[in-house]
């Protein structure tokens, strides 16, 4: 499975929103320590990952 793209990971880490993965910092994985008030940020991070995995083209119709 492909991880968050390196560019997105670097942007997030450089902005201070997330940390490089706590165990595999050279990977494209990230670490984000969830606190109760952080739920909107967590949802946004999951959506970014979902959007990166979702096919850009409809596989049935061939449209974008």
Report on the structure:
The protein has one domain. By secondary structure, the protein is mostly helical. It has two helices and two strands. The protein has a two-stranded antiparallel sheet with strand order 1-2. 39% of the residues lie in helices and 6% in strands. It is extended.
Brief synopsis:
It contains 2 helices and 2 strands, in the order αββα. It has helices at 6-15, 39-53; strands at residues 19-20, 30-31.
List the helices and strands and how they pair.
Layout: H1 6-15, E1 19-20, E2 30-31, H2 39-53
Antiparallel strand pairs: 1-2
Main sheet: which strands, in order across?
A: 1-2
Unreliable residue runs: none
* H and E string: HEEH
Mean pLDDT: 83
Tally of DSSP helical segments: 2
Q: Tell me the distance between the termini.
A: 23 Å
Rounded to the nearest angstrom, the radius of gyration is 14 Å
Number of domains: 1
Major sheet characteristics:
2 strands, antiparallel
- Class derived from helix and strand content: mainly alpha
Strand residue percentage: 5-15%
Shape: extended
The total count of strands amounts to 2
* Helix fraction by DSSP (H/I, runs of at least 4): 25-40%
Which keywords apply here?
single chain, 64 residues, mainly alpha, two-stranded antiparallel ribbon, 2 strands, 6% strand, extended
């Amino acid at each position: 499975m492909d991880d968050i793209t390196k560019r997105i990971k670097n942007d997030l880490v450089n902005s201070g929103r997330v940390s490089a993965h706590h165990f595999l910092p050279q990977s494209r994985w990230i670490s984000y320590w969830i606190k109760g008030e952080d739920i909107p940020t967590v949802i946004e991070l999951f959506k970014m990952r979902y959007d990166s995995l979702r096919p850009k083209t409809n596989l049935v119709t061939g449209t974008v």
